[in-house]
Amino acid sequence: MAAREPSICVLGAGVIGLSSAVRIQDEFPRCDVTLLADRFSPDTTSDGSGGFWLPHLVGGTNQDSISKWSASTLDYMISLTKSPLANQIGVHLLSGYSFFSEPQCPEWRKLVLGYREVTDKELKLLLPKAKFGVFYTTVMINVKAYLPWLISRFKQKNGKVIQSRADKIEDLLQKYDIVVNCTGIGANKLANDSDVIPIRGQVTRVKAPWIKHFMTYEGSDEHCEKYILPGTDTVVLGGTGQRGDWNTQIDDRDQQMIWDGCLEMIPSLKHAEVIRHWAGLRPHRSSGVRIETEKFSGGKMVVHNYGHGGAGVTLHWGCAGQVVEEIRAAIKSTVSRL
After folding, report:
1. Please, which residues have CB within 8 angstroms of residue 298's CB and are 6 or more apart in sequence?
2. Which of 15, 68, 106, 294 is the most buried (most CB within 10 A)?
């Protein structure tokens, strides 16, 4: 008699949860896959993301893992830019400048397209206070369009969607064989992981169609970071990086700081129309992204996938692939013992 296919529940409907659900569904088409979350787009933390591919605030994550997951995600996102779906999900190649207060040699330079150091003339013309800068091409996606597309894709393949709050993972294991924990900042309580803390982010979105290149600046202070990211419909201005701050309300002082910092880089933003402000909590984990399988009695298991900090979009597809590998290995191990 053939073994019964396991039932799988994915917790969380941000970019990490949805990509995990879709990849699991693709890899295990005979499995019953359910997506369970208390919030869906447009009300997730991911909805506020700039959607810009660049490893950022990834805690103590192993560099090899960052490179593996981010490279996989970048390749996938570039493939989307070349598909007929690109307009629908708002994904596009984007070139621009990253400036710093001191020289850098980031690992991601090996992954982006056309990476080069800027010239002295570029520094002088564009951001004189910077001491170093680079130019490159990456990818940006409209997360508010991408998340609904992912969930639609999941439903079209008979994925089940439940809006509910999960208080204990153990309760879900009474109904499902495998639970995939993609709860982000919620893992602080749900997984009893005190290593998960918020890094508060606040951004402003404006109409500024004349802005064609991104521009970022990172100072010596970890809070001294500004970015201007032109998307398909708005330009994202940021940002903040306040560790341990659980405030999701708009802070007027942060708003002014972001505005002043971005105007210093591109003064013409003074005439941009402000569309909206947003604040949210990045799920930071100082010991790094957690992708790990916990085994329970009766062959039940929990696969954790959380703690992505400011790099949820950057790592999402690669991390979802890692979850698939974890599930495949766990199922194989279970079957081999029967």
Report:
1. none
2. 15
Q: Which pair of structure tokens corresponds to residue 176?
A: 């499902």
Distance CA 286, CA 215 (A): 27
Question: Could you tell me which residues come within 8 angstroms of residue 40 by beta carbon, excluding any fewer than 6 positions away?
Answer: 13, 147, 151, 161, 163
Burial environment of residue 251 by CB neighbours within 10 A (0 to 12, 13 to 18, 19 or more): middle
Q: Which of 135, 155, 270, 249 is nearest to 200 (CA)?
A: 249
Residue 91 near residue 82 (C-beta atoms within 8 A): no
Task: Kindly list the distances between the CA atom of residue 219 and the CA atoms of 121, 129, 241, in Å, as whole numbers in the listed order.
Answer: 20, 10, 13
Neighbours of 209 (CB within 10 A): 10
What tens digit of pLDDT does each residue of 130-151 get? Answer: 999 999 999 999 999 999 999 9
**Neighbour tally for 280: CB within 10 Å:** 20
Look at the alpha carbons of 79, 84, 87, 89 in this order and tell me if their dihedral is positive or negative: negative
